[in-house]
Amino acid sequence: MNRETAPLLRVEGLSKHFPVRGGFFRRVTGWLKAVDDVSFQIAHGQTFGLVGESGCGKSTLGRAILRLHEPTAGRVILDGTEITALPRRALTAARRRMQIIFQDPYASLSPRRTVLQTLLEPMEVHRIGTPRTRREKVLELLHIVGMGPEVLHRYPHEFSGGQRQRIGIARALTLDPRFIVADEAVSALDVSVQSQVLNLIARLQRELGISFLFISHDLAVVQHISHQVGVMYLGRLVEIAPAEDLYRDPLHPYTRALLSAIPVPDPKRRRKRIVLQGDVPSPLAPPSGCPFRTRCPEAMPLCAERAPRLTQRHDGRAPHRVACHLY
């Protein structure tokens, strides 16, 4: 297996359950299964797009991979190192190789720190370089993201949303990471600014070979930037496939419904809209069997009895896995 196809990141059976407390003594009365037995891989220099409705567990999964949330079960292996088994001190050192770009750049940037202070901090924490080399690295990063030295002593409130996100990307690059979680990195931006940030991420991947987990609810954006796509529903992955294959031939009924909502730019072409009935079930009380069965137009009795596993499609085409009893 060559470097381009070998996995940089392996996620195996990852789960994150939050305790639900109630009563006078705040005892645990149940568990919210935000992420439930998720497994996938990301190759070197590739982007794995993660899509699904709000509340399906996408952001929790990204944070659990980085151990910003401690996983309840499962393993995360980054470039041969099992991140989930590291003690706290070793985890701090390992975080040089993995970073995150947050959804809201204004909330994730300290209003009391200038751009210079924000970008110097990671290098100071990890004791990288000298004051001179750190400042040179800051200028280099600003150039990479399309900003100049005139912004060094300005504060976050002095920038537009797109500029703040560029600063967030520069901060994520300060420690030369191998893997970055982009959590709804463009969802709060105008469409024109979105394209600029997406093109920047794609260019950084080509030039620096970084692997991305790109989390979004916008399937059109994910199609533009991803090599592989995973579709998430109620804490579980229901379909994983190469981006081109998934958008051309979606298998899971939930994926087909999501794709039917993407606007078609050609007025002569019409896509049949699939409208799902009902609301997403509560993760506190998920339905038995398949989590999607209560809204699925093709549900059958077996769906209520047993949860389907991700199964490889065997037809000689690209690897395409789906969790559905229809297959």
Distance between the termini: 29 Å
Shape: globular
The string of secondary-structure elements, in order, is: EEEHEEHEHHHHEHEHEEHHHEE
Portion in strands? 15-25%
The class by helix and strand makeup works out as alpha/beta
Q: Radius of gyration from the CA trace?
A: 21 Å
Strand order of the largest sheet: 6-7-8-3-9-10-12-11
- Multimerization state: single chain
Largest sheet: 8 strands, mixed
Low-confidence stretches: none
Q: Quote the average pLDDT.
A: 89
Q: Care to describe what's here?
A:
With 327 residues, the protein is of the alpha/beta class. The two termini are 29 Å apart. The chain has a domain at 250-327. The mean pLDDT is 89. The longest helix has 18 residues, at 191-208. α5 crosses α6 (161-173). The chain is 31% helix and 24% strand. An eight-stranded mixed beta sheet has the order 6-7-8-3-9-10-12-11, sandwiched between helices. A four-stranded antiparallel beta sheet has the order 2-1-4-5. The chain has helices at 58-65, 88-94, 105-108, 115-125, 131-144, 161-173, 191-208, 219-225, 243-248, 253-260, 301-305, and strands at 7-22, 27-43, 47-51, 73-78, 81-82, 98-101, 179-183, 211-215, 228-233, 236-242, 311-312, 321-322. The radius of gyration is 21 Å and the shape is globular. It is built from eleven helices and twelve strands.
